[in-house]
Structure to design on (103 residues):
């Protein structure tokens, strides 16, 4: 009786771990690569800038700068590039974050 219960528990545990592995692979496949990294936010004159770096050496990376109550600027970085991106004036609110997107 104990052997049967032990076998049933082992089968249930293996099935659960297989399900979790499959689910995590499916979630990872749906995400875009995390290539764009924010180096810093800064102001120059009356303009707001963000310095972005593409960490993926083999592909271009696309991004969206998320701003509150305004249209979000979108762009693309070349392979292994670092650029200062102007996204607003100093009277506008600061960017909340930069989101990686599919190209």
């Amino acid at each position: 009786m104990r052997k049967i219960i032990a076998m049933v528990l082992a089968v249930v545990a293996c099935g659960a771990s297989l399900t979790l592995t499959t689910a995590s692979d499916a979630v990872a496949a749906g995400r875009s690569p995390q290539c764009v990294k924010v180096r810093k936010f800064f102001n120059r004159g009356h303009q707001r800038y963000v310095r972005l770096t593409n960490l993926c050496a083999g592909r271009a990376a696309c991004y969206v700068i998320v701003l509150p109550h305004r249209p979000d600027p979108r762009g693309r970085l070349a392979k292994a590039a670092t650029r200062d991106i102007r996204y607003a004036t100093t009277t506008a609110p600061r960017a909340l974050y930069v989101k990686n997107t599919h190209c």
Remarks:
- The CA atoms of residues 44 and 90 lie 9 Å apart.
